[in-house]
């Protein structure tokens, strides 16, 4: 077996500390198993793509990471701290940000107010400081000039950037993205790719669910492949897209890459 190349990002990540771990994590809807005994580890600064067919449990999994959905059994820990019903959700969601597929921006608030609301209310941030921080992140997202506009006045790509800036205003250590490129044009998809790379360069771990194989291939360090609530395969992105191990992953890729 050949050694990993020295510049392999998935290999180099293995020396970093684990920031998120699950053991036998499960989630049920009645008798239906949504997540089936998921075991995984994610390390600081990694870019993880979660792939699989619709209904595989991908979005449910990342929602469990910041407890928007609660797991029913098994164990979830972040920085070694067990996440359960006794966890301080305000503190957890300050550490673990989630950018929703439909952005979930408040339509009656300006871009700037969308970004400053949570820091002011949840973290009791000084309004001036919250505003300065929001403008800093809006500038980083290339959208500072839209600060006084409302979500309905923005394009899909612009709303995506606002949603990312809003999450960053809570200064999370882990960022979760649910379909970050859905309904975006190719230029906006390229922008999201650059944003995720910048986040990881700044030490923020990113986990994203996507159906865009090209995006996952060019952004992710590692791929986690799910089907029917199970985590079937975890591999470096280059390995997964070249030679996936499981027959189900090979069939999935054959179908997706031929579309």
Secondary structure elements and their pairing?
Layout: H1 9-13, E1 18-29, E2 32-43, E3 47-51, H2 58-65, E4 73-78, E5 81-82, H3 89-95, E6 96-99, H4 111-122, H5 127-140, H6 156-168, E7 174-178, H7 186-201, E8 205-209, H8 213-219, E9 222-227, E10 230-236, H9 237-242, H10 247-258
Parallel strand pairs: 3-8, 3-9, 6-7, 7-8
Antiparallel strand pairs: 1-2, 1-4, 4-5, 9-10
Helix pairs in contact: 4-5, 4-6, 5-6
Summarize this, please?
The protein has 259 residues and is α/β, with parallel strands linked by helices. 39% of the residues lie in helices and 25% in strands.
Portion of residues in beta strands equals 15-25%
- The tally of strands reads 10
Q: Please tell me what the overall shape is.
A: globular
The N- and C-terminal alpha carbons lie at a distance of 33 Å
Helix content: 25-40%
Biggest sheet, in brief? 6 strands, mixed
Low-confidence parts lasting 5 or more residues at pLDDT below 50?
1-6
Using the CA coordinates, give the radius of gyration.
18 Å
* Biggest sheet, spatial arrangement of strands: 6-7-8-3-9-10
- Quaternary organisation: single chain
Mean pLDDT score, rounded? 91
Please report the number of helical segments.
10
Give, in order, the helices and strands. HEEEHEEHEHHHEHEHEEHH
Overall structural class, as computed from helix and strand content, comes to alpha/beta
């Amino acid at each position: 077996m050949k050694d990993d190349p020295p510049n392999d990002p998935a290999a180099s990540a293995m020396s970093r500390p684990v920031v998120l771990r699950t053991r036998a994590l499960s989630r049920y809807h009645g008798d239906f198993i949504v997540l089936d005994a998921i075991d995984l580890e994610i390390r600081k600064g990694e870019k993880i793509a979660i792939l699989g067919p619709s209904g595989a449990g991908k979005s449910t999994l990342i929602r469990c990471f910041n407890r928007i959905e609660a797991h029913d059994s098994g164990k979830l820990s972040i920085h070694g701290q067990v996440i359960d019903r006794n966890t301080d959700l305000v503190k957890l969601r300050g550490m673990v940000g989630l950018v929703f597929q439909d952005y979930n921006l408040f339509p009656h608030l300006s871009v700037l107010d969308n970004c400053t609301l949570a820091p002011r209310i949840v973290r009791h941030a000084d309004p001036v400081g919250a505003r300065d921080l929001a403008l800093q992140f809006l500038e980083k997202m290339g959208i500072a000039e839209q600060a006084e506009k409302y979500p309905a006045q923005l394009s899909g790509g612009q709303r995506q950037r606002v949603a990312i800036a809003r999450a960053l205003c809570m200064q999370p250590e882990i960022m979760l993205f649910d379909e970050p490129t859905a309904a975006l044009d190719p230029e906006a998809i390229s922008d999201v790719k650059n944003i995720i790379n910048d986040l990881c360069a700044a030490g923020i771990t990113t986990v994203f669910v996507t159906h865009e194989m090209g995006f996952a291939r060019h952004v992710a360090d590692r791929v986690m492949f799910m089907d029917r609530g199970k985590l079937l395969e975890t591999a470096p992105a280059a390995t997964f897209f070249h030679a996936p191990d499981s027959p189900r992953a090979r069939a999935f890729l054959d179908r997706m890459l031929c579309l």
